[in-house]
Amino acid sequence: MSSNPITRSHVRLTVKTTAAIINLVVILILDEVYGAVARWLTVLEVPKTDKSFEQRLIFKTFILKFVNAFTPIIYIAFFRGRLVGRPGSYLYVFESYRMEELSITMLGKQLIQNNLFEIGVPKIKKLIRYIRSKREAFQEEERQKRLQRYE
Question: Is 99 exposed, middle or buried (0-12, 13-18, 19+ CB in 10 A)?
């Protein structure tokens, strides 16, 4: 452990914050895994129509992602609070901002899922397509130059 008294006083905060961030990362990873599991289970059922397939897939995806999203929040909100502390004895950051695992989990999930997956991933895919098209255009131009030399 560190001999610095400031670092020692914030050990509990660091541990709680790290645990909340790890919890958030696991939730996000399992969200993607559960989407694939829902599709796999629906394919195993072999529904007769596309409509039936979509309905079953939506139901399974909803149930799995609902449980994944809300189980940690319910645990933190109702069960963990009883084991850790009581009202009036909360963990504060910089003596004025209250740091709760629940807020890290909820806000982090919204920020990461909305910004990264819904905005960032499509922008990265668009950038990759743009780079590929430029490279293909350059290769086509080089091929045309080689063909002109032999004509």
Answer: middle
Is the entire prediction scored with pTM above 0.70? no
In the chain, what is the greatest distance between 2 CA atoms, to the nearest angstrom? 86
Tokens of 72: 């940690």
Asked whether 80 and 101 are in contact (CB, 8 A), the reply is yes
Other CB atoms within 10 Å distance of the CB of residue 76: 20
Classify residue 113 as exposed, middle or buried by CB count within 10 Å of its CB (0-12, 13-18, 19+).
middle
Cβ count within 10 A of residue 128? 10
- DSSP structural state of residue 98: E
Tokens of 26: 């696991």
The count of residues in the chain is 151
Backbone angles phi, psi at 92, to 5 degrees: -115, 145
Asked if residue 144 has pLDDT above 80, the reply is yes
For residue 118, which amino acid is it? E
9 or 139, greater pLDDT: 139
Q: What are phi and psi of 124, to 5 degrees?
A: -65, -40
- Dump pLDDT digits (tens) for 30-72: 988 999 999 999 999 999 999 999 999 999 999 998 898 888 7
